[in-house]
Amino acid sequence: MKSDNTGHRNTGYYNTGHRNAGHYNTGHSNTGHNNAGSGNAGHWNNGSGNAGHWNIGDHNTGFFNTEDPVQVNVFDSPVDRKDWDEFNKPDFIFFELTEWVPMSEMTAQEKKDNPDFEKTGGYLRFFDYKEAFQKSYANADEEDRKKILNCPNFDADKFFEISGIDVRVDADKEAKKAELIAKAEELLEQARKM
């Protein structure tokens, strides 16, 4: 962490927000340089959630965009931005790739691998992407886990490829349940008409 940042958990220089990786960012959680906004991956963006460079809108992918996109790809298929924004996202998909481990909780091997632990009071444990995703899912309650099945364009195979989490059995059960409920409602409607 650099002393010329005015935020917390920044790597880089001259950031005025938190959790930036790069330089000269104003906002939070940017990866790149010279972003004004939050959650940008790229450089010189004025907005939030952009991947690319020189965008002045929000949630753009690419370069020199001025408008907010009407559609986004979810599981490789287009979805109206409004539907994506209104989707009740599970908490477990917002996970951390690092975890601070205080000295009192470190194993002997972790202390050996991190000889400066006494100076820092612990060490920063890193997880690979799928490991962090799976850890977050494992710590989520059943209600939160099931939310992913309602994601627009949900594809259990692609979700497994991305996260390493296999919900295909749950997805099949939910699809069969929805099919049976629809059939039952159809039969009830026919019964009412008799």
Shape: flat
Number of domains: 2
- Sketch the major β-sheet: 3 strands, parallel
- The string of secondary-structure elements, in order, is EEEEEHEHHEHHHH
Class from secondary-structure proportions: alpha/beta
H/I helix tally: 7
Overall average pLDDT: 86
Q: Give a count of the beta strands, DSSP E runs of length 2 or more.
A: 7
The strand line-up of the biggest sheet is 1-2-3
* Beta-strand content: 5-15%
Parts with pLDDT < 50 across at least 5 consecutive residues: none
Radius of gyration over all CA atoms, rounded: 22 Å
Ends distance: 73 Å
Portion of residues within helices: 25-40%
Please tell me about this protein's structure.
- With 194 residues, the protein is an alpha/beta fold.
- The chain folds into two domains: 1-69, no CATH class; 92-178, no CATH class.
- The protein contains seven helices and seven strands; from the N terminus they run βββββαβααβαααα.
- The strands form three sheets. A three-stranded parallel beta sheet has the order 1-2-3, with no helix packed on it. A two-stranded antiparallel sheet has the order 4-5.
- Strand 4 and strand 5 (77-80) form a beta hairpin.
- The radius of gyration is 22 Å and the shape is flat.
- The termini are far apart.
- The relative contact order is 0.07.
- The model has no long low-confidence stretch (mean pLDDT 86).
